[in-house]
Model the fold of this input.
Amino acid sequence: MDRLAHDIRAWGRALGFQQVGFAGIDLREDERHLDDWLAAGQHGDMDYMARHGSKRARPQELVPGTLAVISVRMDYGDDDPDAAWQTLRSGERAYVARYAFGRDYHKLLRARLQTLADRIAAHIGPFGHRVFVDSAPVLERALARNAGLGWIGKHTCLINRQAGSWFFLGELFTDLPLPADPPASAHCGTCTRCIDVCPTAAIVAPYRVDARRCISYLTIELKGAIPVELRAPMGNRIFGCDDCQLACPWNKFAQRHDEPDFRVRNALDRATLVELFAWSEDEFLRRTEGSAIRRTGHQGWLRNIAVALGNAPRSAAVLAALEARRDDASELVREHVAWALERHGVR
Done:
């Protein structure tokens, strides 16, 4: 098994994973943390977080026969935090979370992990396995921590000492008794930059995020109206939020990715709110094909941008864009457009 583990690491690196680790399946402490979070209702409308009961923290119940988990990371950072801060300071431009710039990472990582599984099978013969990329009830960050890939920071993202936190995670559940790596130790110390910078105060305590206040949740997971008191703090963030990662000092070690699928599409690193608000549903679906952004849907996309336009500097272009959707077919969009217009003094 030690030799096989060595080979799996090499095969994983050849497939583009920056790191491969191995974890056991004991997640009892993390299960207690999850249960407490769910009991507090801090998962908001994400009912799927509680739907699968204990399976999320018990890999052997999710995939019977699981003995070990192969955990991988793939970098997606662009090594240019100043560009992100500049976009956030520009009220006319739209801020999209860095991970959503290119192709949907789920498909890429899943395909690479399946290729890794096929390579293992070609070497040892058929074995029990299942691939996961944020697609099932899996505590991926806890497993990655136990596999030595990094520690869970106070913002609840995984942090690696050599790579920061700009990376994706994926897992391969296996029935192979692979040797577990030493878990990563934590190195946040007394730093609270991620907590202090959060626009909506969603990090309510170290290692505890109230999803109901998190901009990533509000712009992606929430399907209804965004709470009025949280709209102004959202600024120009229209899909996700990176502030806590941008503020993290460990990201000075983040590595620039060279994966073509993660390159920016639709000029999302410099697009204006007015430009994106003009996308019809057909254009939205065409431009977001194969993108994580499609998850929010066209109605959610317009809702989010309407809020950002309400926070943008008043201009003729901003007011014209909002007026053009004052009578939108969606009641949800109309309500947020009305709020935005009122922010600019138009009733």
Observations:
- DSSP finds 16 helices and ten strands in the chain.
- The longest helix spans residues 105-124.
- The two ends are 69 Å apart (CA to CA).
